[in-house]
Amino acid sequence: MSTPNHYRLPTEGQPPEALLEQMSNFKSEDVNWQEGRTWSLVYHLGPEHDALLKAASNLYFSESYINPFAFKSLQRMERELIQMAAGLLNGDDGVCGTVTSGGTESIFLAVYTYRERARKAGKLRSGAEIVLPVTAHPAFEKAAHLLGLKTVKTPVDEDGRADVEAMRKRLTKRTLMLVASAPSYPHGLLDPLPEIAALAQNHGLPLHVDACIGGFMLPWVERLRPGRLPAWDFRLPGVTSMSADTHKFAYGAKGSSILLYRSIDYLRHQFYVSTDWPGGIYASATFQGSRSGGPIAAAWAAMHALGEAGYLRIGEGLLSGSERLQSAIRNIPGLQIIGQPCMNILAFRSSDKQTDTFVIADQLEAKGWVMDRQQRPDCIHLTVMQQHLEQLDTFINDLQEAVAFAQKHPGAKSQGNAALYGVMARLPMRGMVARSVRQLYEQLYSSKPSGEDSQEGTASPEPAWWMGPLNRLLSRWPFSR
Ligand SMILES: Cc1ncc(COP(=O)(O)O)c(C=O)c1O
C-alpha cells in the first residue's frame, strides 16, 4: 500500500526514551494550565494526587470492562462509585446507575433511556421534544440530533436562571423530558430546581438534572455555606435522573462520569442486548463497547483518597477563592457578574456600553491569561480551581488594568483570537458560523497533508480569512451586542 503524502508509520521501531522526549516536546504548543493561567479544562490537585490516579489507572491498564462478569473487581468499584454518588446526591436505596466515559455520554444515555422508555410504552410521538433552558449544555442538543429528537430551548430570567413559566408554556403532547442544570456551565447558576421538579412531576414527565460540573461540589457548598442553596437533587421527587462527572470536581482521571436514575424502571431501558450475532450474545450497559477500566479505578481511588474531609477542605479553598474574586469584580466600576453564582464558577461582563468585554479579554490575554469568551450576552467565564488560588491577586490586578485600558479606549476593537470569538458571538447568520466551524473540523480531520513533507508534523488549521474583517464590521453594528 502506498500513501506517499501521509504521515507514515516508521519502518523501524524507535526507542521509548526518544519517543517520550519527542511527545513531551509536542506539548510546548499546548495551553499552559499548570501555572493557573487557563480558566477551564483541567481539574488538578497536584503531583501527589496525580501519582495516585496514574497508579490506579495503570493497575487496570489491560482489562476491558466490556464484560462486567469477567472483571468483578471493576464491577465492584463501579457499584461503589454509584452508591457513593447516590448518597451525596441524596438518593434513596432505589437509585441506581452506571459509570460512563464523561458528561456527554451520561447526557446522551439519559436522553436515549427516556426515548426508549417512551417508545416501549407506545408513547413516543414523532418530533418528540426535549424542553431545556438555553444555558443547558450542548450535549443535550447533540443527543437530540443523534437520536432523531428535537430540542425546545427556553429563555432564562434576568438572573440567568431557567424561566420556569417559559418552560411550562412549551410543554406539549410531544414533550419527552425536561432538563435543568446544577449549575449551568457558562455562568455557574443553579436553575430553580424545586419549581422545575414540581412542573415535571405535575405533568408526569422525566426530569434530568445535569450536575456534571456541580455534582461533586454542591454537596460541599451546602455544608460549608448553609442556606445558600435550595434542594437541587434527588430530594425533589420530580427529579428522575442526574449526571455528575467524577472527572471534574471528584478529581478522578479524565474519562469518567456517573449517571444515576431514580429507579431501575428507568435504567433498564439503557441496556442494549443483541441475541443473533454469530459471535454470541452481546450486551452493553453504556454506549461504549470495549471500556477501559482505568477511569473507574482512578475515580474510585480519588474518592477514597480524599473522603468527605478532603473534599470539604478543597471545597472551602475554592469557594473562598471564588468569593474573593467575585467581590473584587464587583468593586471594579463598569463590571457586572451574571446572576448569583452558586459555587466556584462565574461569568462577568462590561456593564457600560462603551466598553467591549472582549477588549478586556484581549488585554488579559496579552498578560498571559487564557480567557474563555462567551456569547449572548458577551461575557468572560471563570472556573476557580486549585491551580488558580495562588494566582488570584495577580489576576485581580491584571483585570483592573485591563478594564482601565478598555475604558480609556472606548473605540478599541477586539483582536486576534478574540476576533474569532467576537465574530462567532455577534454574527446573526448562525448557519455561516456553523459552516465555518465545520470547515475547521474538516481541515483538522481530513487526511490531506499539511506541508511539503508531512513527516515534519501537522499544522493546526486557521480560522477563515474573512472572520477578522467581518468581526470589526459587526462590532460596530448597532444590534450586535
Ligand atoms: C454542566 C455540564 N454538562 C455537561 C458537560 C459535558 O461534560 P464532558 O465534557 O465531560 O462530556 C459539561 C462540561 O463541562 C458541563 O459543564
Give the structure's gist in a few sentences.
By secondary structure, the protein is of the alpha/beta class. The protein is 40% helix and 12% strand. It folds into three domains: 247 residues, Aspartate Aminotransferase, domain 2; 91 residues, Alpha-Beta Complex (Aspartate Aminotransferase, domain 1), CATH 3.90.1150.10; 56 residues, no CATH class.
Descriptive notes:
- With 481 residues, this protein is an alpha/beta fold.
- It has three domains: 247 residues, Type I PLP-dependent aspartate aminotransferase-like (Major domain) (Aspartate Aminotransferase, domain 2), CATH 3.40.640.10; 91 residues, Aspartate Aminotransferase, domain 1 (Alpha-Beta Complex); 56 residues, no CATH class.
- It contains 15 helices and 13 strands.
- The strands form three sheets. A seven-stranded mixed sheet has the order 1-7-6-5-4-2-3, sandwiched between helices. It has a four-stranded antiparallel sheet with strand order 10-11-13-12. It has a two-stranded antiparallel ribbon with strand order 8-9.
- Strand 5, helix 8 and strand 6 form a beta-alpha-beta unit.
- The longest helix is centred in the middle third of the chain and has 37 residues.
- The relative contact order is 0.12.
- The C terminus is likely disordered.
- Pyridoxal-5'-phosphate binds next to helix 4.
- The site of pyridoxal-5'-phosphate has 12 residues, from helix 4.
